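From the pipeline queue, job 12 of 40. The input is one protein chain; the requested action is below.

Action: predict structure.
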Amino acid sequence: MSDQKAEWGVLAGDFLSGPKPEKWDQETTKMRLEDHCRALVNEGNSREDTLLYLLEYNRGGSENPKWFAERLPELVELHEATFATHDRENNLIAQCSPVDWKTQTAQAIVERKMNPRTALVTENGMPVFYRKSVNQIFSWRGVGKSLFALGLANLMAGGGRMLAWECNEPREVLYIDGELPEEQSQERLREFVRPKNLKHVHMVSPDLLGLDKCINLFDPHHAQAVRRMIDDNAIEVVVLDSQAMLMPGDPLKTDFQDARSRLLQEYRLAGLCVIEIHHGGKSREQRGSSRNDDPLDIQIRLAEPNGWESGDGLQFEVQFKKVRHNARLESGYTVSAEGGEWKRVQSDIELEVGRMLEEGKPQREIAKTLDISQPTVSRIMKKITRDGNARLNDKASK
């Protein structure tokens, strides 16, 4: 242990004595201390002995008693957190030892009393987002996926209604943003999250943390920090914005998709509703491997209206690309936002299709004239009919 003691003394001196280090340097040193503390625990040292070692090393390394006293609570917290993680991992291993695995018959599973799955967001009574689910929203750059996700965070944090979606109970939401400066985060929160819901939306980003590098959810230290935030704040919904910024690597590679699937599955097993934000490629489909879709319960594409260009404002079509639980959810409608409020609108192409239908033009001619597919004309025609019937029903009920 003598060599390890010497190294601990050097690290402790860096951490506890002299002028206060820069924020990221201090964080890096704490991570190194945590690694060594974990090594002591894994070697079988008791809780009391490990704490005594820490105190001894740091007394020897600290030349500034005042600074040592100020940082002592952090070392005690590090010590307790390391043992808590160690105990949790040992319990998990004990619970899930392959030697103790047993099957359950289909009959036993069917007959066991279980609570039904918890739907956090519904549409006309049909579930959209479940507890214990992994979901994704993707679009071409600049369309508005992050703002739409923030709107969803507002909905889940306060309950209520957004478009046709309803949330019957406020939830604690963790929004992990990978790139925005803190000033822009503040602007967006002010616009898209209602004041009464702000306390239920917990936001973290590199800039808000004062980091000089990106959050990396594949890094064990960063992943552990996120899990601690989830536990400390009783989080039920996690928004990951975005895959590209929070999960470094090549999404076409098997190793990347394996690591991503494991991470998302761990969140699901922890009871979380995960909403991952992802980029669309030039084809307007999700960027990367087809394996991207495998762990998803819900996948939503936000498609640009015909003729839309960056700078035309916040407007897109909501399209469900995957619905694992087979709910019949409305797809293909256009939405926009003004003053942080989301509303359904008719796109220019929908208005033009409606006008030509009223003139009695056949679908094939409409498709050729507007340079769109005939199935698109048919879908818009059904949507116009459905919306018209809904307005008639609203008038009849008044």
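Job complete. The chain has 14 helices and 13 strands.
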